[in-house]
């Protein structure tokens, strides 16, 4: 199982409880990942060929991609590696958030679109996108940026006016509303990751009347997509019945 999400942890617990022979794989971008009830490996595979070789070496019969919806690289590699290794693949993917009444969304296709959508200066931005693309917002140095990170930054932040809050989700509405008020946030930038664990910031922005710049998910290669732990367990049972 390729993990790193709340849904991945729920699936790992279900697999362990049912006695499945499974391995939980983390990409290793988080310095202190949550403990899992399954044997765990940490780190990348070294590309598609190396991942296919790993699957063959470990006699893997099924792969569940339960990574973050924006982990496009590993998800694309998993599709190709599973094809080469002859391994069944399915994705455990959260439904996207949908704009509702009172939401002030600007939808953009990527990080560059989010940067372009921000004011040139004097905005107070809750940059709720993780750590990987923080530096991409350097072309708009006249804004204040509030960052929420799982791990403390290892060096100076790549933005001249920024503050980092170190916290691990899930987050609640009261906490996110108070955070935005305390930092006088005027704009929220978020990836459309879906799920309940990070949705509080979207609800808080709606209640506070704040505009949200919502980054659409990347387009991934075709693969079976399952919407919950129960669906994954049924898929595993069905594949086993077919002798895969």
Describe the fold and architecture.
- The chain is of the alpha/beta class and 244 residues long.
- It folds into two domains: 113 residues, Rossmann fold; 112 residues, Rossmann fold (3-Layer(aba) Sandwich).
- Helix content is 31%, strand content 22%.
- It has seven helices and eleven strands.
- The strands form three sheets. Strands 5-10-9-6-7-8 form a six-stranded parallel β-sheet. Strands 3-4-11 form a three-stranded parallel β-sheet.
- The mean pLDDT is 93.
The strand count comes to 11
| Number of spatially distinct domains | 2
Reading off the top of the CATH hierarchy, the class of the largest domain is best stated as Alpha Beta
The general outline is elongated
| Secondary structural class | alpha/beta
Rg calculated over all Cα atoms: 19 Å
* Number of helices in the DSSP assignment: 7
β-sheet strand percentage: 15-25%
Quick one: biggest sheet? 6 strands, parallel
If you average the pLDDT, what whole number results?
A: 93
CATH topology of the largest domain: Rossmann fold
What's this model, at a glance?
This protein has seven helices and eleven strands. It folds into two domains: 6-95 and 219-241, Rossmann fold, CATH 3.40.50; 104-215, Rossmann fold.
Features:
single chain; alpha/beta; Rossmann fold; 2 domains; three-stranded parallel sheet; 11 strands
Element layout with pairings:
Layout: H1 6-17, E1 24-26, E2 40-42, H2 48-57, E3 62-65, H3 72-85, E4 88-92, E5 104-108, H4 111-117, E6 121-128, E7 142-149, E8 162-166, H5 173-182, E9 187-191, H6 200-208, E10 211-215, E11 225-226, H7 229-241
Parallel strand pairs: 1-2, 3-4, 4-11, 5-10, 6-7, 6-9, 7-8, 9-10
Helix pairs in contact: 2-3, 5-6
């Amino acid at each position: 199982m390729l993990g790193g999400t709340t849904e991945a942890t729920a699936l790992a617990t279900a697999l362990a409880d049912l006695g499945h022979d499974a391995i939980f794989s983390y990409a290793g971008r988080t310095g202190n990942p949550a403990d899992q009830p399954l044997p765990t490996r940490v780190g990348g595979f070294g590309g598609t060929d190396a991942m296919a070789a790993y699957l063959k070496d470990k006699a893997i019969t099924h792969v569940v991609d339960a990574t973050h919806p924006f982990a496009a690289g590993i998800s694309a590699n998993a599709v190709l590696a599973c094809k080469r290794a002859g391994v069944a693949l399915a994705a455990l993917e959260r439904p996207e958030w949908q704009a509702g009444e009172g939401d002030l969304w600007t939808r953009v296709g990527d990080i560059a679109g989010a940067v372009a959508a921000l004011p040139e200066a004097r905005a107070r931005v809750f940059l709720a996108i993780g750590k990987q693309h923080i530096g991409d917002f350097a072309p708009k140095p006249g804004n204040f940026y509030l960052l929420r990170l799982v791990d403390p930054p290892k060096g100076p932040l790549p933005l001249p006016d920024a503050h980092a809050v170190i916290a691990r989700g899930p987050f609640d509405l009261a906490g996110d509303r108070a955070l935005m008020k305390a930092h006088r946030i005027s704009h929220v930038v978020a990836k459309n990751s879906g799920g309940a664990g990070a949705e509080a910031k979207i609800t808080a922005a709606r209640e506070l009347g704040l505009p949200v710049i919502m980054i659409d998910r990347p387009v991934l290669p075709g693969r079976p997509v399952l919407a919950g732990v129960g669906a994954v367990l049924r898929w595993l049972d069905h594949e086993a019945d077919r002798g895969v």
